[in-house]
Amino acid sequence: MSPTVCSWRWRSIAASRRGRRSNKSIRQSPQGRVNVHVAAVPTEERNPASMDLDSLPLADLLRLINQEDQTVPLAVAAVLPQIELAVLAGVRALRAGGRIHYFGAGTSGRAAFADAAELRPTFSLGPDQVVAHVAGGLEALWSAVEQAEDDDVAGGRDAADVTAADLVIGVAASGATPYVAGALRHARSVGATTALISSNPQAPLHEFADIPIAVDTGPEVITGSTRMKAGTAAKLVLTTFSTAVMVRIGRTWSNLMVCAVPSNAKLRQRAVRTLMSATGLPADVAQEAIAKADEELPVALVMLLSSVDAETARAALTAAQGMVADAVRHLK
Question: How many Cα atoms are found within 13 Å in the side-chain-facing hemisphere of 231?
Answer without folding.
Answer: 17
